[in-house]
Automatic annotation (TrEMBL):
<feature type="region of interest" description="Disordered">
    <location>
        <begin position="254"/>
        <end position="280"/>
    </location>
</feature>
<dbReference type="InterPro" id="IPR010657">
    <property type="entry name" value="ImpA_N"/>
</dbReference>
<protein>
    <submittedName>
        <fullName>Type VI secretion-associated protein, ImpA family</fullName>
    </submittedName>
</protein>
<dbReference type="InterPro" id="IPR017740">
    <property type="entry name" value="TssA-like"/>
</dbReference>
<feature type="domain" description="ImpA N-terminal">
    <location>
        <begin position="12"/>
        <end position="135"/>
    </location>
</feature>
<dbReference type="Pfam" id="PF06812">
    <property type="entry name" value="ImpA_N"/>
</dbReference>
Length: 350
């Protein structure tokens, strides 16, 4: 993977010993200007003239976000910064931006903006809603679908959306100049293998940061208030599957994992229970179990609100990590004394 283009360590440092995350700049002119700039310019009709919409100036947004991050540690600015990195640097920008958000939140959860309000029982809703922008279709998922995954000097660049259209998994208007699947496959064969490996490494690193972020926030706010990043995680799985297949078609089976610097590895290991989830979706630990149960509950609450399944699974969530006797106390308190007698008798026999 290419060298980091942003200085993550710089933004992990305290802004001031007495004010580690700096000031709240929500009403600062620079913050307000950034929020306006990231919208871009909508189409305007002036008399008989129509001025076409203009996309955001991502170079200026990146510059403005970095200037604000010198003065504040704000989740909103971090998300805007991530979007600019994706627009300018593609998958490398995604992996670096997610790593920055993940590590900064883990280090400065108590002080990062917007602050938790003790008078409102430290309600995390505002923070969670900001983080859920990572799964917004228009501002995050769609731009990622347009990021280059493979590049051929002869045939050009192709993104995930190009592949989906070529494979007839996505419909488009007749006016769209859709690429042919054979063209994309030819581009894969003509591309630089190291570039494909780098893209795959960025995807795997992004998924690890996303899962680590979700685990950490879940530990802080509780599973019922935690963000659900499944939409972005699913897209990353699609990217991984596609790139793995392309590399296999080039005869590359053993794909090197992304390099992790020792300091970053130590920082990740120091977090309490900040477990990593496999990008494949496998269940590897109790936190994965809790996340899976939460996803199932969310599905039923949204699609089958009358189903009793969430009630049962929410009870199951409480049992994760408990001993047999603690679980029995939760399920059938009246049976605890009888179980104690039986287990005691068994112990005496042994």
């Amino acid at each position: 993977m290419s060298a980091l283009s942003i200085d993550i360590e710089k933004y992990l440092q305290d802004i001031d010993p007495d004010n580690v995350c700096g000031d709240d700049l929500e009403y600062d002119p620079a913050f307000i200007a950034l929020e306006q700039a990231i919208i871009g310019k909508p189409e305007q009709e002036i008399g008989d003239t129509i001025q076409e919409a203009e996309p955001p100036d991502w170079k200026e947004i990146k510059k403005s976000a970095e200037a604000l991050l010198d003065r504040t540690r704000d989740l909103r600015v971090l998300v805007y910064y991530l979007r600019s990195l994706i627009a300018l640097e593609g998958l490398t920008g995604l992996s670096e931006g997610l790593k920055l958000i993940d590590t900064l939140i883990a280090k400065h959860w108590d002080a990062v903006y917007p602050r938790l309000d003790p008078d409102d029982d430290n309600d995390p809703t505002e923070r969670v809603n900001i983080l859920m922008a990572l799964c917004d279709h228009e501002t995050m998922l769609r731009p990622l679908q347009l990021v280059s995954l493979v590049e051929s000097k002869a045939l050009g660049r192709f993104c995930f959306r190009d592949f989906m259209i070529a494979a007839e998994k996505m419909t488009v208007s007749e006016d769209d100049n859709a690429p042919k699947l054979g063209t994309i496959e030819a581009a894969v064969q003509d591309s630089d293998i190291a570039a494909l490996q780098s893209n795959l490494a960025s995807i795997v690193a992004s998924a690890e940061s996303l899962n680590s972020l979700e685990d950490f926030v879940t530990q802080q706010v509780g599973i019922n208030n935690a963000p659900n990043f499944e939409a972005l995680r699913h897209l990353l799985k699609e990217f991984e599957h596609l790139l793995s297949g392309w590399l296999e078609s080039r005869g590359v089976d053993d794909i090197d994992a992304p390099q992790v610097d020792p300091e970053s590895q130590d920082e990740m290991a120091s977090r309490p229970q900040a477990t990593k989830k496999s990008i494949s979706g496998a269940i590897n630990n109790s936190q994965d179990v809790l996340n899976a149960l939460k996803l199932i509950c969310d599905y039923y609450k949204k699609n089958e609100p009358s189903s009793p399944v969430p009630l049962l699974l929410e009870r199951a969530q409480r049992l994760v990590g408990k001993s047999f006797m603690d679980a029995l106390m939760d399920i059938a308190p009246d049976g605890v004394s009888q179980a104690s007698i039986i287990m005691g008798a068994k112990s005496e026999d042994e």
